[in-house]
Write a structure and sequence with these properties.
The protein has about 500 residues and is α+β, with helices and mostly antiparallel strands. Helix content is about 30%, strand content about 30%. It starts with a strand and ends in a 6-residue tail after the last helix. About 45% of the residues are buried. Bound molecules: flavin-adenine dinucleotide.
């Protein structure tokens, strides 16, 4: 084993969407980060087909959303197990799913990462790890070349559903096994006469055909009478035969660009942290891809973890801050597993499920039901367990228009640098004095709110704050109401909890 001499404060295993997003978040915070990726180059597998509102907001918070909207296509509706959902325009500036393939998402994230100075080392597979109180030793199988050992202070496994990092760190992956098999492929269908086919139900399953690009279709054929073995190979012929069984035709299927398989297996890491090793994205959770939540969940894990890990690496915050990552994100993953299990139950063939879908479809006509499911799928209604009386506390900050001494801005523009921001809307001297000890880490912005709603999703309430402390991930850590003096001791407590002790002045 040769020592490469390469080390980094944080090593990320896996250059998928989660690993790349996390690398960018860490670089924005000035952390030296190395991404190691098993593959020599990106696969080109299309996989995920879109991003939801909260992910679009997160990209907007970093000032890179335009790169994605330039090539993606906003969709008029979303869906829950194939039943249409309508988004409420009042809840976000981006009240739509953006159709964009995972290949393009990964390419754009990688370009951003390279711009920010992230080092990405391909053909490097994590094969062994050991940790002690000061760091983690990571063994890499590299192709070509001899195996190497690198040293890092923290290792984050973003290495997908079969995560080697998770297994090597002894973290359990409990859940429910597959009960069905879905084959998916990007193919040409010269005999298809419709533009697309939306979830056509059949006696043994269902199929859909979605148009992604001129001439190319994504076929998904789901059968509920068998669960494939995990390591069974996937072939184009299997996809063709499955579609034949379901639809009675293969629409002349030819020229596969990509064929894969998924199931309704749903598992979640028992812990997101084992000492200096953390997990994010599919390494921490796998589930039925219904509703298109997996990639979104991983990107949002990364945005929750990045600034916390950076604060710990820089010695600004104690290691215990990392436990809030598990505390906040594990229940979110659990909620997604739960709703995808419900979606797979609603997708099962048979007259009983047909009836259930009819009833469910009727319920979706009620605004509150539609809104509840939209909030869940888009993650706009997330509420982290953060102490505080103001209804915005723990929720994602709405992107309200602001006016500052420098001109017009929006809340999300204030978050581009991924630093915490204290927005003071009443020009309070007490608030300014309270934040002084954190002036090296927290940006104080005096502003007035000129438009937009301080609406709290899923609470029918307008909650205009007098001041609010926004974490780099866009969640509100503290807020003051307009009708009483700001509680500056609660503000100081929030600053210390999230950003470490004040500097000595
Ligand atoms: C068929 C299919 C359809 C899907 N459709 C959707 C959808 O419509 N919407 C949606 O949101 N999600 C969808 N998903 C889920 C989505 O693709 C995943 O949630 C997403 O890719 C997770 O990103 P990740 O970065 O966490 O993991 P991955 O994308 O799996 O990336 C992990 C990376 O780690 C690398 N790696 C693995 N092991 C090692 C190692 N030991 N050392 C170094 N590198 C390693 C891998 O090569 C890979 O590049 C779908 C998934 C599948 C399979």
């Amino acid at each position: 084993m040769e020592h490469s001499g390469v080390d980094a404060d944080v090593v990320i295993a896996g250059a998928g969407p989660t690993g790349l997003m996390l690398a960018c978040e860490l670089r924005l915070a000035g952390v030296d980060v190395l991404v190691v990726e098993r593959l020599a180059q990106r696969t080109g597998e299309s996989r995920a087909g879109g991003m939801h509102s909260r992910t679009l907001e997160v990209l907007d918070q970093r000032g890179i959303l335009d790169r994605f909207t330039e090539i993606g296509a906003p969709q008029p509706v979303g869906h829950f197990s194939g039943l249409y959902l309508e988004f409420d325009e009042a809840e976000s500036r981006h009240p739509y799913p953006l159709m964009i393939l995972q290949t393009d998402i990964e390419r754009l994230l990688e370009e951003w990462a390279v711009d920010l100075g992230v080092r990405i080392r391909r053909s490097s597979e994590v094969t062994a790890i050991s940790q002690n109180s000061s760091g983690v030793t990571v063994e890499l199988g590299t192709t070509p070349g001899p195996a190497r050992t690198i040293l890092t202070r923290y290792l984050v496994g973003c290495d997908g559903g079969r995560s080697t990092v998770r297994k090597l760190s002894g973290i359990g992956f409990p859940g429910t096994p597959a009960t069905m098999t879905a084959l998916i492929g990007d193919v040409e269908l010269p005999e298809l006469t419709e533009d697309y086919i939306w979830v056509r139900r059949c006696p043994t399953g269902d199929y859909s055909v979605i148009a992604f690009e001129p001439g190319w279709h994504r076929v998904i054929a789901s059968e509920y009478d068998r669960a494939a073995e995990r390591d069974e190979p996937v072939t184009f012929e299997q996809l063709r035969a499955s579609l034949f069984r379901l639809a009675g035709t293969d629409f002349g299927m030819r020229n596969p660009r990509w064929v894969s398989r998924f199931s309704d297996a749903a598992r979640q890491a028992a812990r997101y942290r084992a000492g200096r090793v953390l997990l994010a994205g599919d390494a921490a959770h796998i589930h039925f891809p219904a509703g298109g939540q997996g990639l979104n969940l991983g990107v949002q894990d990364a945005v929750n973890l990045g600034w916390k890990l950076a604060a710990v690496v820089h010695g600004q915050a104690p290691e215990s801050l990392l436990d809030t990552y598990h505390r906040e994100r594990h229940p979110v993953g659990e909620r997604v597993l739960h709703n995808t299990r419900a979606q797979s139950a609603l997708a099962r063939p048979g007259p009983h499920t047909d009836a259930l879908r009819d009833v469910f479809g009727d319920l979706l006509q009620f605004d509150d039901v539609n809104r509840q499911l939209c909030g869940m799928l888009t993650a706009l209604n997330l509420h982290y367990p953060i102490d505080g009386d103001h209804p915005l506390t723990g929720r994602r900050v709405p992107d309200v228009d602001l006016k500052t001494a420098d001109g017009a801005t929006r809340v999300y523009e204030l978050l581009h640098a991924a630093r915490p921001v204290l927005v003071d809307l009443h020009g309070s001297a007490e608030v300014a004095a309270a934040v002084d000890g954190w002036a090296d880490r927290v940006d104080l912005v005096e502003a007035t709110s000129v438009a937009g709603h301080w609406i709290v999703p899923d609470l029918d309430e307008l909650s205009v704050p007098a001041a609010l402390l926004v974490r780099p991930d866009g969640h509100v850590a503290w807020a003051a109401a307009t009708d009483e003096p700001p509680d500056t001791s609660a503000l100081r407590a929030a600053l210390a909890t999230w950003f470490g002790p004040p500097r000595q002045i």
